[in-house]
Amino acid sequence: MMITPVVLCGGSGTRMWPLSRSGYPKQFLNLYGESSLLQQTVKRLDGLEQVAAPIVIANDEQRFLVAEQLRQLAFDGARVVLEPVGRNTGPAISAAALIALRQDPDATLLVLPADHVILHKERFREAIQRGLTQAAAGELVTFGIRPTGPRTSYGYIRRGEALIDADSAYRVAAFVEKPNLERAEQFVANGDHYWNSGMFLFRADAYLSELEKFAPDVLAHVKEAVGKSRQDLDFLRLDPESFSAARSDSIDYMVMEHTQHSVVVEAADLGWSDIGTWSALAEISERDAQGNTFSGDVVALNTRDTFVRSEHRMVSVVGVDNLIVVETADAIMIAAKDAADDVKKVVEQLKAQGRSEGQTHRKVYRPWGSYEGVDRGDRFQVKRIVVNPGASLSLQLHYHRAEHWIVVSGTARVVNGEDIILLSENQSTYIPLGTPHRLENPGKVPLEMIEVQSGSYLGEDDIVRLQDNYGRVQFS
């Protein structure tokens, strides 16, 4: 039986602000370990037998982030499918099922969110192997995590009768919404409830058959979106009009809760966490004798049970207890551990105020590299630009600003109007307002440079693209 992994790469991770933002959400961050959560999800497939190239469901804005992180793994077999709008897991998995069936009429889907941590990889693979028996029989398998405590931020699965031929598989008696603390404590004490991991294993045709029963309208729209999809570079774009017409809902609400006679929960102890809050990350992180976790440049005195992550500056904490402190280049978040779930409300407030800190970092990633704001004032701003080897920005012009480029390291090939010049370390050029220009890195090491912009308007939307290697039709 060939397994087709489906990696769900949407989501904004607002409760992990200020590190996770809508422009660079938590699945792309190295929150736990040396690689991003997306990369860990893909690497977790190593060791599984008969695995096809995964289908990665992502949104348009983050398509190049997905491609770059897969490239860093030297992993070029994934099929990246772009949602024009987010429609939750039900329609996303439906699109993946239809796409998988194009290549394999017997495709079995392994659905994995891209932003989870699993500490016990071998147990994960063993749970998948156990679930294949039920999936082959047409069952929809969901993976339940044995709870280690009463968590109110997770949904639960109540198990029913045990399957005769499987000592860790049960019929699903009910899917339970996130409980209050008293109910969560009862669930743990009873021993018949599991955390709902959001991971699934089933035949693609079995899932679509159930979807046809309970959400035929969604299936019709998604079929049309897949049928009208188009290839764009390495990405498959779902038809915007058709996919947008599908109602937004999760796979649990759309299918699983209506077809419990066909759903099996495979109970597992995987060292699993969805890292839904900073407190959840603190729980699985290594702690010192005082219960603290420090990352980055941190100085602490008389501090207990506190999580501090410093990304840029030195952070000092004195005489505090049970806190979360996260520092980035443009924001600092301090919260009581038991209030970490409310961090998302800060993001909502930032959005309501029209502030950029809720969406983007000071450092912004692009398909060619990155840029980072260094300084800004009236009629000027300074950026640090890094261009990857062999990459280039679009041929473009600006109506409202001129630019000065100074090479810090590497080699730049610059189109400046009618001129083409090569610049090396400590050399510079001036791009007059309204002049077509392009920046390329012809070398084998990253190109680092400082850009000084000056003019009456310095917004990122003052870009007119004349040519672009990445198929972008809007500024980005």
Q: Could you please describe the fold and organization of this structure?
A:
This protein is an alpha/beta fold and 476 residues long. It has three domains: 3-273, Alpha-Beta Complex (Spore Coat Polysaccharide Biosynthesis Protein SpsA, Chain A); 286-349, no CATH class; 363-467, Sandwich (Jelly Rolls), CATH 2.60.120. The protein has eleven helices and 30 strands. The chain has a six-stranded antiparallel sheet, with no helix packed on it. Strands 6-9-7-8-12 form a five-stranded mixed barrel. A four-stranded mixed sheet has the order 14-16-18-19, covered by helices on one side. Strand 18 and strand 19 form a beta hairpin.
**CATH level 1 name of the largest domain:** Alpha Beta
**Large-scale geometry:** globular
Main sheet: strand order: 20-21-22-29-24-27
| C-alpha Rg (nearest Å) | 25 Å
How many domains, in number, for the residues?
3
Brief overview:
The protein is an alpha/beta fold.
Which features would summarize this protein structure in a list?
five-stranded mixed beta barrel, 11 helices, six-stranded antiparallel β-sheet, Jelly Rolls, 476 residues, 30 strands, Spore Coat Polysaccharide Biosynthesis Protein SpsA, Chain A, globular, 33% strand, 23% helix, 3 domains, single chain, alpha/beta
